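FAQ: What does a multi-protein file look like?

Like this. Sequence, then tokens, then the next protein.
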Amino acid sequence: MSDKLTKNERRAQAREQARRMQEERRRKERLRKGLTVGGIIVAAVAVVAIVAMVIVNSIRPAGPGPENMASNGIVIGEGFEAQRTAATPAEGEPTPTEPRDDIIQIEIYQDYMCPVCGTFDEANRATLEQLISTGAATVEIHPIAILDSQSLGSKYSTRSASAAACVAEFAPDQFWDFNSAMFDNQPEERTSGLSNEEIVGVAESAGIDTSGGLADCINDGRFMSWAEDATVRAGTQPLPGTDGVVADRTPTVIVNGQKYPGSPADAAGFQAFVTAAAGQQGGESGEEPAETEAPAETPAPSDEG
């Protein structure tokens, strides 16, 4: 017992206890410093990863566009054959379609998630098909993506626009069939939309051979960056051949450079507008194309530019 120790022994015992306590403090201090340095390193790695991600996303260039969509749209003509064009290179500018005075030129800026676009397609598909098949008009489809916020994070609008670009490149003469099938299978807003594999299935249901790279193109989302760039351009820059019109809502429909102001559901109103535009083109009438009921277009959400 300590009460039987001599004075010198008690001093030695106290010194030993002090030494052990000091050693314990030093051990804890080394551990604390190690944890702190380790935490700094881990935090630094995380910051570097985040910064790298931000940098990569901010400097990622717009990818090259698809073949047959040099104008960021595909032109469908008589026999439902697509106009062939070279791909726009990465960071390149799209080439507007040349205006013609011998044919009606109809342009449709659409989002495959947009219910009003589906309404326009349902009401006017027959009219458009008749105009195309008789050679009276070309129809230029511009897939854009303004409704990604309505697909629960799946970016369906961008993915479907990219898929359309894939079809334009790999099966351009079947683009119209694909476009129709996409609206026939249109998902509702505030759902995740179709998966990429399901979009491949839609293409196959339209009679399109998806081998030879088309399925991979759709599944890989190859033209998503192109679709994003095309959407920004259409929504912020005047559309070629128009008097300052921008496609900040869908559908935006242009006939010979003039925006259709009527209801997307009004087939008769759209036919009258096309007839009037054709009359102006042929010099048969000096009247402005008839306006019909105000449209119920889908505007681009404010947080998506």
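And here is the next protein:
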Amino acid sequence: MKKLRPSGGYRDTASFQTATLIYDATVWFCEKFLDPRSRTVDQMVQAARSGRQNIAEGSRASATSSQTELRLLNVARASLEELLLDYEDFLRHRRLQAWTPDCPEARAVRAVPRTFQKDQSDPSDQSDPSDLTDEQRAALYSRWLEHADPAIRANALICLIHQANFLLDRQIAALEKAFVEEGGYSEQLATARLAHRKKKEQPDPSDPTNQPDQKPPTCPQCGGLMALRTAKSGKNAGSQFWGCTKYPDCKGTQPI
């Protein structure tokens, strides 16, 4: 049986690939330039790891919970923001120069993905179709991330964190839009169950309600998508009805 909602596939997203690069480079940075007994080392490595792992966990959770997926992606975004501040603090405390967004070095780091990205059609994220390994991807940034100068490494990582955060912001915005327009997993599951039940009760193939791809009706008030709801109070408590997914902005309903 085909899954109601897809999940996984995070290894092919640019956000996860960039977060992996950031995590590996942060481990190497801390090993080379920071005291291993420092609490900062543990905080930076854990923040980098959290950015990567929560993208993966959110992707797997997407099959059953839009809210969980959004929450985990926001955790990843917050962890990378924390790591960004650590690298900015490293430069400031040591009076090392921070790159400006438009300096040649920063532009060179930002330009690297254009050398291997071919498909930029997905508005929520950009996949890397060239099947590069993590090692091959890291090699594209090695002249910065393996540099002997800690300022160059830190500045390059700041650029990469900004890129990862930009990608996560787009993913989060796309997921929020899809949740508003299509509803959450429980609503979609209830709609699919209703369609299946009608198919069993009305086996006539000429009956339009018996089609496997039956879609919820549109709202009579705003024309938006409707989802199956259950009345929680009143004389119809416990009964089901179609309700507009834009509620409470739109209170359109339709009987089943």
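Q: Is there any per-entry metadata?
A: Some entries carry free-text notes. For the entry above: The radius of gyration is 24 Å.
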